[in-house]
Amino acid sequence: MTDLWAVTHTQFDPQHLQHAETIFTIGNGYLSTRGAFEEGYPGDERATLLHGVFDDAPMVMTELVNAPDWLALTIRLNGERFSLAQGTLEAFEQTLDLKTGVLTRTVRWRSPAGDGATLKFERFASLANEHLLLLRCTVTPEFEGLLEIHAALDAHAYNEHGAYRLAHWHWLDQGERRKAAYLLVRTHGTGLKLAGALRCQINGTAVQAQDMWHATMVPTQVVQLEVKAGQPVVAEKFVALVTSRDVEVDRLVDTAVEHVTAVTTWEAALAAQTAAWQAEWERCNVIVEGDDEAQLALRFNLFQMLIAAPRHDDRVNIGAKTLSGFGYCGHSFWDTEIFMLPLFSYTSPHIARNLLTYRWRNLPGARAKARANGFEGAQFPWESAATGEEVTPTWVPHFADRTQLVRIWTGDIELHISADIAYAAQQYWQVTGDDEWFIQQGAELILDTAKFWASRAEWHPDRAGVPPAAGGVYEYRDVIGPDEYHEHVDNNFYTNRMAQWNLQTALHTLAWLKNQAPDKAQQLIGQLDLSEQRLAHWQAVIDKLYLPVQPNGLIEQFDGYFQLREIDAAALEPRSQSFQQIFGIAGANEVQGIKQPDVLILLHLLRSEFSAALVRVNYDYYTPRTDHTYGSSLGPAIMAIMACEVGLPADAYEHFRRAVRADLHDVRGNADDGIHAASAAGTWQVMAFGFAGLRLTPDGWHLHPRLPQHWKRLSFKFCYRGEWQTVDLTQE
Amino acid sequence: MTDLWAVTHTQFDPQHLQHAETIFTIGNGYLSTRGAFEEGYPGDERATLLHGVFDDAPMVMTELVNAPDWLALTIRLNGERFSLAQGTLEAFEQTLDLKTGVLTRTVRWRSPAGDGATLKFERFASLANEHLLLLRCTVTPEFEGLLEIHAALDAHAYNEHGAYRLAHWHWLDQGERRKAAYLLVRTHGTGLKLAGALRCQINGTAVQAQDMWHATMVPTQVVQLEVKAGQPVVAEKFVALVTSRDVEVDRLVDTAVEHVTAVTTWEAALAAQTAAWQAEWERCNVIVEGDDEAQLALRFNLFQMLIAAPRHDDRVNIGAKTLSGFGYCGHSFWDTEIFMLPLFSYTSPHIARNLLTYRWRNLPGARAKARANGFEGAQFPWESAATGEEVTPTWVPHFADRTQLVRIWTGDIELHISADIAYAAQQYWQVTGDDEWFIQQGAELILDTAKFWASRAEWHPDRAGVPPAAGGVYEYRDVIGPDEYHEHVDNNFYTNRMAQWNLQTALHTLAWLKNQAPDKAQQLIGQLDLSEQRLAHWQAVIDKLYLPVQPNGLIEQFDGYFQLREIDAAALEPRSQSFQQIFGIAGANEVQGIKQPDVLILLHLLRSEFSAALVRVNYDYYTPRTDHTYGSSLGPAIMAIMACEVGLPADAYEHFRRAVRADLHDVRGNADDGIHAASAAGTWQVMAFGFAGLRLTPDGWHLHPRLPQHWKRLSFKFCYRGEWQTVDLTQE
Q1: Would you list which residues of chain B are within 8 Å, Cβ to Cβ, of chain A?
Q2: Do B165 and A166 touch (CB under 8 A)?
Q3: Among residues A259, A281, A303, which one ends one of the domains?
Q4: Do A238 and A305 fall within a single domain?
């Protein structure tokens, strides 16, 4: 592995087709396209997903729609269809260049009749013009005869649900303008409109009008050529996609045609692409010396985050699987705020701001959810899509028995996301110093979530074990914490403490606002009804929230956790299933095995509030109880940071490796469904907060380097309050 | 209305597009195609459904798959796309010729640019060769210029589920053989393969190979013509569909191509079609004089049944909505045995036998269902599809709140279908005298369902109200009867009495079999374990089954029905909702309003077992409690027969009219989803058993004519034990 900017497969492995499609995803923050083959392959999951283009779907409520397939390219050599499912594959290489975002595949193939050719496919999603998709295929025949190329824009793109496939697009119009084929379609339920335009060139010459097939839903440009052995043919396919989220409906087709006809040459578009990516890596590159695998894997994870991050749209968010697969339907979770936001707040504040503004725009949905549940303020949905309403499925089919359904409770009672969003807003502000955004949007996020927490707190005057002098406690009962193996628990410590933090921060925010932006403070006081009485109630909840800590510093994850049956995790090894799969949903609820660090992630988020000794006690207690390998993919990055904190560098590196290889090496066996975004972005946190020990304090930023032993150098940049900082660490 | 063989619309009504599509369905017993427009229209539900071609679907378990669309025909006049959604419609007529099964549409249309043309579309599904579909379009331009015709076979055909659409087909292959375009696809979950072949002629000349668009999934033949005003252009499109249910997979494409190339001319195919339909009507025609509406509507209902009835396949059944729409996913219910079978047993015994053999073939599924529920014998599924396993959805989304689900109990506890199937088997035998079938299959159906009923009966020694001398009673608790407004009821009289009939008939069958086919009797005794002990238990259940009748003859529909709250049905009028929609699912369970006759249908089926006085008492009691207009569409035909029985001819005619107009006039507002098959076939029963009073007794058939007052003549034929009988009644 010499080029630490390229992910390469030199073998075609049909057994792991969909995994390769996931990791060879390209994108530009507006859309992503999985690395499926242009010519198709049985069982492929070809998909292009656009931010914000959601449609209704059974059970899962709403999902990102698989856009018209712009890759479709049928190639016939002397009448025989090129496909790796037939003929002879003589050479294969697929490479994703992380530096430029170009995916290349070179194939030497021989047809069943014996006609050979080398085919080189290159593609990229333009970062310079996010509506533009470019594909180039160079065919070098070893035979003399007929070469046919059919380049389609195929609106029969389906959303894969395993047992079934949904068709979201309805035909509206298609035709030809300025030598481009165009197509106009709309989604079934939400009525979003999408225009696509397609233009092809063969050896630099545009395909003629008479060589277009206007087949319904599948406009296709077609070329037939007499070819000679050794003389390459270059086919270029340019596609533009534009939706009614971007421009007025009556401008859709023209806009798509304009984008696609504005491309002069492949080379010019590639030059713009290279320049745009250079600017990205200027901000975000991480240099690791002494660990080539980590170097490449870190860049791969950063690449996957950068292609998923909306640059010009603050009405969308990043889904748990980015835009790289159908997993979780493009829905966004707390993954964004707790796992992804730090990367962007520190390296790409314009992206972080877009993501947080999405939450602010969706406050009406969060308020509606709180009201529907009988509470005040803003209760953010556990799963969020286009509108900010709760889109967590309430029921999903049981995987083993289709007549049975499993009730999903996270949308009802996994409350902590509201505090997580407030936390991310405050962190963004601390890192960037973006007072303007904080005044206009961030403060409202923090205040209205606090209002929710105060209304949701239950007063229990007679809680056992609470000194009578206290007169009672506030509690949060019937919740789910970050560890989702345990449902319907009371006083999840993470939830309670983050709620308290949210309320405290809200009071500080209001005080700051009254001082710095008194008009805004008055507006919010009126709008959110922040009366003195209400603020006094907030203070009472802060003061009397139930947050028990054992004398030795050990924290019980929730009421009764210590009484659950212990498990011998080591005795379960080797395993390829999660604790929950092994014990069952009900069984896992009754043992101590946890899906991910729960107490420990709180200690990470509010690190300065807890002593090193307390951290160590809890690290030692919870680490052996955590399902590191098949539990949540969110866990390993946090575990790595906390292992750094307690001075266990070898353990830290093991957890880091689990996170950074999650998708590249499919260590959990489910990368087919898409990139594990929280894990990918979490690797940046391990690098920065764990290995470099980056911490913010009121007087600035500090480093506490704890590099893995074999790392010779770690270097990265970040932007602190508008000023770029460079970190460059070596082993001392 | 002069031609009483044609259903005609002379206006295009986009508000009722899908209703028109349903009633203009054509078919041939192998497949049906809804009457959607060749060129498409926004919101249409174009569908071709093939018997037995099921695929997995969420919630509904399995559904008939919308086959590749063979209608697709794009026509451009001087570059403008013909569509009723634009331009000017100057004349419109759509006619279904019931005598030949040809659907014709004539349209005079002017494009937005002013180019006018008359377009005549004709189509039929060949009854002479059930794989063959034919379409002809005659365009008579009023302009000089360019006429383009694109004729596609479009495998992007979706199953409509309202909120979403499923895509079932995967591409396998496509190409060209013998001037026909072909396509090979497979279903997503069940892996059934379908080949389609397409061949077009323009003015009698085959479209050339270079005029084919091999767009993926959408092979299209294309013609461009310079046309002159007044000179018609005739485009003919022939399509063949064959599936892996019909021939070996490696013969699929060749077989489809053979069928489509065997068509010499439209005229020859039409002649074969006309002859085939003449034979159908020779058997099935009904003549009514003095009531043109009834005459035409009866023929329409018969036509819809005849195109849905499998002639060459005994592995399929007729769905509740025939093959004419997506309603009930093509699943079969008791509708077949109780409502459709009489029509076929009397007029088309070869079809009746196929339908009953389907049940016999699915005995393994029925046995598996009984075993899974802890019972013996054969418990037939409430909803049945390809395999005979239970395919009733267990949950369906609540129509008003997508986070809520409604539990469907019919698949669990609507037991009576097992007796209904036994009843139909015995009736078929009685009508046809088909001893061979009865010995080989019918007897086993009756015996194994009896075995189920005996094992399902519960012994209750202490039932209140039962004389102590009896020592106890057998009961069937927790069931649903024909009236599905009342779930989880005990001792539904219909269920109990039909179970008793099933057990009695089983004993008679075994006795007959021992006499007539002793080898078969011994085989079944061994196979089904029909020990003396078991038969004694059957007799005990027969003797002690709980079947209470009031002294005046009134029968309580189920335990406690009389105690339910009465409703004032008249006070709810006028209404456009069912009782269940008005009262809610739970509310309807608690009032006396019923979805359909329940006791009365039992009295119809076992008419000779009950006195005229008892029939009258129950008719008078239950008629005002029945939801005739928006309850079950199965009800009106039975009500009409029973009204004849009690001598209320005006009432009988009113119920008959409700049944016979159900789809033609969409009296229930849901004909969009497909033909109400039970109602359609039920109209034949009203005609035969009600108005003509046809009854079988051990010594032959008898008539008790009760013609509607204004009918001058009623004539029909039926086949009794191999001999054709003609009924020709006039008012005496």
Answers
A1: 40, 56-59, 61, 72, 74, 150, 152, 154, 156, 158, 161, 163-168, 171, 188-189, 213-218, 220, 394-395, 397, 402-405
A2: yes
A3: A281
A4: no
Domain shared by A263 and A361, yes or no: no
- Whether A484 sits among the annotated catalytic residues: the reply is yes
Please state, in angstroms and rounded to a whole number, the distance separating the CA atoms of residues B439 and A565: 63
CA distances, A560 to each of A319, A486, A631, B136 (Å): 33, 11, 21, 76
Q: Measured between alpha carbons, how far is A179 from A674 in angstroms, rounded to an integer?
A: 36
Q: Are A476 and A495 in contact (CB under 8 A)?
A: yes
Number of domains in chain A: 2
* pLDDT of res. A2: 54
Q: Is residue A579 part of a domain?
A: no
Contact B325/B34 with Cβ under 8 angstroms? Answer: yes
**Which stretch of DSSP H or E encloses residue A136?**
strand A132-141
The Cα of A407 is separated from the nearest Cα of chain B by a number of Å equal to 11
Residue A556 located in a structural domain: no
The B80-81 sheet, strands edge to edge: B80-81, B73-77, B145-152, B220-227, B212-213
Grouping H, G, I as helix, E, B as strand and the rest as coil, residue B212 is strand
* Closest residue in chain B to residue A408, using alpha carbons only: B403
**Per residue in A268-279, pLDDT tens?**
999 999 999 999
Mutate to test the interface with B, among A169, A186, A193, A218 (most CBs of B within 10 A): A218
Determine if residue B114 is left, alpha or beta; phi over 0 gives left, psi from -120 to 50 gives alpha, anything else beta: left
Find, in chain A, the residue whose alpha carbon is nearest to that of B169: A165
B92: closest CA of chain A, how far (Å): 24
Q: What is the pLDDT of residues B105-119, one digit of tens each?
A: 999 999 999 999 999
Using a CB-CB cut-off of 8 Å, the residues of chain B touching A405 are 394-395, 405
Structure confidence at residue A1 as a pLDDT band (50, 70, 90)? very low
Establish if A590 belongs to a structural domain: no
- Give the active site residue among A383, A389, A390, A484: A484
Over residues B356-363, the mean pLDDT reads 98
- Give B574 to chain A, closest Cα distance, Å: 33
Report which residue type is found at A336.
T
Tokens at A435, concatenated: 């007072």
Q: What is the rounded distance in angstroms from the CA atom of residue B136 to the CA atom of residue B203?
A: 11
Contact yes or no for B216 and A213 at CB 8 A: no
**pLDDT value of position A337:** 98
How far is it, in rounded angstroms, from Cα B358 to Cα B20?
31
Confidence of residue A121 (pLDDT cuts 50, 70, 90): very high
Of A505, A467, A456, A481, the closest CA to residue A555 belongs to: A481
Same domain, A704 and A680: yes
10 Å Cβ neighbour count for B98? 23
Check which CATH number belongs to the domain holding A15 and give it.
Answer: 2.70.98.40
Q: Do A269 and A308 share a domain, yes or no? A: no
Distance CA A143, CA A135 (A): 24
**Contact check, Cβ <8 Å, B161/A58:** yes
Asked, for residue B139, whether it belongs to a domain, the answer is: yes
Given A220, A251, A281, the domain boundary residue is A281
Rounded-to-integer distance, Cα B286 and Cα B296, Å: 10
Q: Report ipTM for this prediction.
A: 0.92
Of the residues B213, B329, B394, B408, the best mutation for testing chain A's interface (the one with the most A CB atoms within 10 Å of its CB) is B213
Q: Which domain holds residue B130?
A: 36-281
Optimal mutation site among B63, B218, B220, interface A, most CBs of chain A within 10 A: B218
Distance, CA of B343 to CA of B332 (rounded, Å): 17
Using CB atoms, pick whichever of B165, B166, B215 lies closest to residue A218: B215
Average pLDDT value for residue range B354-378: 98
Chains A–B, number of C-beta pairs less than 8 Å apart: 91
